[in-house]
Amino acid sequence: MQTIEILNLDTNTSEQQALKPLEQARRQLEICNACRYCETYCSVFPAVHRERSFSDENLKQLANLCHNCRGCYYACQYTAPHEFDLNLPQALAKVRQESWQDNAYPAAFAKAFHKSGAAIGAAVIVGFAALLWLIQLMGTHSTTDSQANFYDLLSHNLMVALFMPAFLLPLVSIAFSVRRFWQDIDAEPLRLIHIKGAFASAAKMKNLAAGHGEGCNYEDEDRFSQARRYFHQATMYGFLLCFAATSTATLMHYLLAMAAPYDLTSLPKILGIIGGISLSIGTAGLAYLKLEADKSLGDTQVWGGEMAFVLLLFFVSTSGLALYWFGQSPWLGELLALHLGCVLAFFLLMPYSKMTHGFYRLAALIKEEQNKV
Amino acid sequence: MKKINNIYDTLVIGGGNAALCAAITAAEAGLKVLILEGAPKPYRGGNSRHTRNFRCMHPAPKAVLTDSYTEEEYFDDLLKVTKGKTDEKLAKLVIKNTHECYDWMQNHGVRFQPSLSGTLSLSRTNAFFMGGGKSLVNAYYRQLEKLDVDVLYEAQVTHLDLQGNHIKSVTFHYQDEVRKLSSKTVIVASGGFQADIDWLARAWGPAAKNFLIRGTPYNKGVVLANLLKQGATSVGDPTQCHAVAIDGRSPKYDGGIVTRLDCVPFSVVVNQNSQRFYDEGEDVWPKRYAIWGRLVADQPDQVAYAIIDAKSLDLFMPSVFPPIKADSLEELALKMGLEPNALTQTIHGFNASCRTGKFHPTELDGLATQGLTPAKTNWARPIDTPPFYGYSLRTGVTFTYLGLKVDDKAQVQGKDGPIINLWAAGETMAGSILGQGYLAGFGMAIGTVFGRIAGQEVAKYANH
Fold first, then answer.
1. Phi, psi of A159 (to 5 degrees)
2. Domain membership of residue A136 as a residue range
3. CATH of domain B245-396
4. Which of B134, B171, B223, B316 to mutate to test the interface with A (most CBs of A within 10 A)?
5. Least trusted range by pLDDT, from A243-257, A338-352, B193-207
């Protein structure tokens, strides 16, 4: 009886695997450029097909265009055990990660927090402890006083003095980093039409929808699903609504001399509650999907940092909601410290965590709009 | 481990497009189906993994397909490539059915996209799969899950027990054991024999040992050989395979689409003795790559070298590996393992025979050499602008023509009429229709149409 030997095509050399992220991405994209089957999955491939060879700058731009939807991986006839060993989602994730870390100020912080979930956790604990200490120190009421308003625990001025720089300084750091990236990828001066195109793409998360609009391949191998796209949208819009709530409250406080607390029908409350719920659902969903998905299609080194960042956002929103619902309880002081501690950690970590991805993605999308013929 | 019992109405041998279309159709008709796929899961799908489109008849613009493509034109195109070596009845059956297949495919999870960049010439006739053939295969396996079809991977069928005009059982290797199953019906959709290089060498000659196999390493034609040995009627030239000239650095198996190399029309092509052997500019590349597969097969060691200069580098689709690059012809020759003096002499001779005139890369420009044998009749520009680039070329086998003869019900024909419970679909019976040459997206058309017919027929037989 004739038997068929099973061919072992797994000839990946350690040499191939030892390539640096940029070299690995270049090797893989050159194969992609000769194939082109994935042309309509996302923005990366049309951008790849415009090039003949890939400079480091090209690669960084392409890596930030990639939204890790993984459609190309599951459709690829050259993934392992094939000797070409393509894993483009991972290769681009590594280049992307490198571009965020190398451009960050200071880069050492980025290297620590991107990789380590524990470091992010520690930052939250420090934030919580600092706030608790501040409240104990500065509060005009005992934290167990059921009539307390949180400005009694921590005055508005003190909050502003703390959170204004904690928010703005990281933003300045991000601005410097993204500017460096922007120069790196050789982008042209900003034009409204390109910004519009990029925002339209981000608003709908077009690049997580695939060409057919049925979503990405994430939590269940090659099955197309909108779950990640929708949870990401809930996260992004939830975050923006929370941000809008805080901004409106700030304006009301200074321009209209209307101090918190605001009642349920006020704009800050409506925006904040809807945003908070949306952010909590979105981040909980993303964390769940992340557990289900194949880790090896991303940069495995930063899985922990990414997960911790998603959970941090979840705690920011959920503790905010808890503060609203249980604001009259004896736990107000602790809740406030927890919420503000999370917010403080989140703000300070912005330049050194997954939060930067939004800024880089937008830059890459704008550049792609500029490149389109 | 899954229990393997004699509970199946039909056994489908193979796991590519035709097998999947047959299995889906049979399961939708209520049959209990088992797929025996010889490859492990990452390589499931046979050569369908490497395909990218489906040639589709359409009387009017249809989704991603522009304009119209009539039955007559489709059949004419087939006649041109096969030079008449086709079964008109079966060919027209396929062509007519492609139209409704489009919707069927879409309803079963296949997603189409407009023709890819670099393939504009196919935008009217061929519907491209979004993500390529593997995504089509994935979509069909997802359908099978919903339909409760069982799939065994690395289940390699070795024998079909043909008694009279009836298949009694199917023997296969699975998890280090030999197993035997009986079922009412059997569908063979396990491709050709192109991955069995010894068989290729017996059929073609010893040169075949140096051929590269573009597709799956699992199409070894075991079932085909087994059935032919037991008297199943064959079709197609047993000595022939479809082969094209591809990048010589490609993997021995499974290199697929990316190994194609479109530089020949802009090159000087020499063999390992640095001698030219054929008109590189005879016609546009899509009409010549198959001829070059044979031309390269006839050269010493079945290898050739295409040389271009900086002027031509961007005129064709990028290659899978970067070309070999050098600042002088001598250096290039050394890097490619050619004799520097011989190569320079050939190139200088070629350059001297080039004349001035208008060069036009996308059409036959008539820019021919003068007084050179063999001539280059189009796109003949001197190779004189460094850096110089070189690619090696080898013969890449796409598929074989030998197959099982079937009727219009996909039923396999034995010595004395049809084998009553055996059907075939896909590459393993395509030789009836595609007796010679190749038409882009037609293999998938045959597989889909005959896969569905086989599925319908087994259902009729099993349910009656």
1. -60, -45
2. 108-164+204-356
3. 3.90.700.10
4. B134
5. A243-257
Q: Give SS3 for A162.
A: helix
Q: What is the predicted pLDDT for the residue at A140?
A: 58
Give the pLDDT score at B243: 93
Q: Which of B50, B116, B131 is nearest residue A71 as measured by Cβ atoms?
A: B131
A113 and A55 housed in the same domain: no
Mean pLDDT within B295-312: 97
Of the two residues B333 and A325, the one the predictor is more confident about is: B333
pLDDT of residue A10: 44
Verify that A74 and A143 share a domain, yes or no. no
pLDDT at A327 over 80: no
* Same-domain pairing of A46 and A157: no
Across chain A, what does the average pLDDT equal? 90
Task: Give the residue among A361, A368, A306, A302 at the shortest CA–CA distance from A178.
Answer: A361
Of residues B102, B46, B47, B26, the one with CA closest to residue B398: B47
Q: What is the pLDDT of residue A104?
A: 94
> Which whole number is the average pLDDT over A252-261?
84
Nearest Cα of chain B lies from the Cα of A5 at a distance, in angstroms, of 9
How many residues make up chain B in this entry? Answer: 464
Residue type, position B226, single letter: N
Instruction: Give the pLDDT of residue A330.
Output: 83
The answer to whether A3 contacts B156, with C-beta atoms less than 8 Å apart, is yes
| Ordered alpha helix ranges (H), B370-441 | none
Answer whether B116 sits within 8 Å of A37, measured CB to CB. Answer: yes
Buried b / exposed e across A109-144, counting CB within 10 Å, b at 16+?
A: bbbbbbbbbebbeebbeebbebbbebbeeebebebe
Mutate to test the interface with B, among A10, A35, A74 (most CBs of B within 10 A): A35
In this structure, what are the phi and psi dihedrals at residue A92, rounded to the nearest 5 degrees?
-75, -35
* Closest by Cα among A4, A358, A17 to A203: A358
pLDDT at B1: 46
* Tokens 């009986």, located at residue: B182
Contact B218 A34 (CB under 8 A): no
DSSP code per residue over A250-319: HHHHHHS--PSPP-TTSHHHHHHHHHHHHHHHHHHHHHHHHHHS-GGGS-GGGHHHHHHHHHHHHHHHHH
The model carries a pTM of: 0.94
* pLDDT attached to residue A153: 80
Chain A to chain B Cβ contacts (< 8 Å): 111
Nearest-neighbour CA in chain B from A56: distance (Å) = 17
**Inside any domain, residue A38:** yes
Residue A320 lies in a domain: yes
With an 8 Å Cβ cutoff, are A1 and B178 in contact?
Answer: yes
| Domain boundaries B10-199+402-463, corresponding CATH code | 3.50.50.60
The interface predicted TM-score of the complex, written ipTM, equals 0.95
Q: Could you read off the pLDDT of B396-448 as tens digits, one per residue?
A: 999 999 999 999 999 999 988 999 999 999 999 999 999 999 999 999 999 99
B411 forms beta bridges with: B423
On average, the pLDDT of chain B sits at: 96
pLDDT band at A142 (very low <50, low <70, confident <90, very high): low
The CA-atom distances, in angstroms, between B350 and each of A274, B334, B345, B374, B378 are: 75, 20, 8, 10, 13
Query: Which of B50, B129, B320 lies nearest to residue A34, judging by beta carbons?
Result: B320
- Residue A4 Cα distances to A350, B47, B157, B173, B220, angstroms: 56, 17, 9, 9, 8
